[in-house]
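Bumping my old thread because nobody answered last time. Still need a sequence for this structure:
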């Protein structure tokens, strides 16, 4: 994976300030039922990943963190479209061959989930969007719109129905039906990796943790004595934006999508790095979507799908999948807010003195 895949615009407010060395642990001095706070940081999937956890001793904390990092690195080697020998890249190279390809456990789980979301969203979510994403990355670098012919060709090579999945002899298989396809799991793989790393932490005996990567995050029990992890959300890059909100969350996952950092303005129009798979064109709806979901994989995917579906269809789509969403958008000059039922409104920051 790579940080160009889908940036996030959410910041975590850690409970202490200070420099953190990658891969190192820093305990706090406060104790609660013999638990100490440790924080770790390490580059993963082309992004900075951060982990805060509570453990009874440094060895337990460090071993748990290393196990989580190892699981994320393992998944990157399977699910990355930037690694030429990843399982995903090898699958993409079989496109148009007519051959069914056996899938490993992790890739099959991600592709099955992606297929369900693609079908349910009528293609607003689509992991075959690789050729379209590559085209718009080039557009951002060159600051020149692609030709209609280039867009049409990228669209020809994309489409969720071009991926066929089946189970045979107890094993999942995939068939990519059109030559030149390129799968891109950038809107779902990071969330899956966070879920798997959270499972590892729990297996290591760590229940109180917050793990984030590029703004996506998954969390377990809250810090000792707290009702939840304090998260800052709704940081929208426009002067007309409403006040950011502080949410207190535990045993859930959160993800955001927006165009605050990766975008290009051409001819007075602002194009996002998020491509609408149905048109092959970067989104022009300046927006920030925040999703709270039981799993990080679902939150990751839904934040992209809702960005494409917009405020009319997006909240209901998220709700059907057991998630809650907050959409900020600025279609012209006024910022609009849309909440799904049950999304926590949080608290505004106290005024400065």
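Sorry it took so long. Here it is:
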């Amino acid at each position: 994976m790579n940080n160009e895949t889908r940036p996030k615009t959410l910041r975590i407010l850690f409970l202490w300030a200070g420099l953190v060395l990658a891969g190192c642990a820093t305990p706090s001095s406060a104790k609660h039922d013999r638990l100490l706070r440790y924080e770790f940081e390490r580059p993963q999937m082309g992004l900075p990943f951060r982990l805060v956890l509570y453990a009874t001793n440094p060895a337990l904390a460090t071993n748990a963190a290393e196990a989580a990092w190892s699981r994320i690195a393992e998944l990157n080697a399977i699910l990355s479209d930037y690694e030429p020998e990843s399982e995903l890249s090898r699958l993409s190279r079989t496109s148009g061959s007519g051959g069914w390809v056996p899938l490993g456990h992790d890739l099959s789980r991600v592709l099955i989930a992606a297929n369900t979301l693609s079908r349910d969203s009528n293609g607003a979510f689509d992991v075959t969007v690789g050729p379209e994403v590559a085209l718009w990355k080039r557009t951002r670098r060159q600051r020149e719109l692609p030709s209609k012919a280039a867009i049409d060709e990228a669209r020809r090579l994309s489409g969720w129905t071009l991926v066929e999945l089946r189970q045979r002899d107890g094993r999942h298989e995939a068939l990519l039906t059109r030559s030149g396809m390129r799968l891109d799991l950038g809107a779902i793989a990071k969330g899956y990796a966070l879920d798997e790393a959270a499972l590892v932490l729990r297996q290591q005996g760590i229940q109180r943790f917050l793990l984030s990567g590029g703004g996506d995050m998954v969390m377990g029990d809250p810090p000792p004595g707290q009702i939840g992890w304090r998260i800052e959300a709704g940081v929208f890059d426009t002067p007309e934006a409403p006040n950011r909100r502080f949410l207190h969350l535990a045993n859930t996952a959160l993800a955001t999508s927006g165009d605050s950092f990766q975008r290009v303005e051409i001819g007075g129009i602002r194009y996002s790095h998020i491509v609408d798979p149905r048109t092959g064109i970067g989104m022009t709806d300046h927006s920030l979507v925040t999703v709270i979901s039981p799993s990080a994989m679902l939150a990751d995917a839904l934040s992209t799908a809702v960005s494409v579906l917009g405020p009319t269809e997006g909240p209901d789509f998220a709700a059907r999948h057991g998630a809650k969403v907050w959409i900020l958008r600025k279609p012209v000059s006024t910022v609009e807010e849309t909440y799904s039922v049950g999304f926590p409104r949080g608290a505004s920051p106290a005024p400065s003195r």
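Confidence is low (pLDDT under 50) at residues 2-32. Let me know if any region looks off to you.
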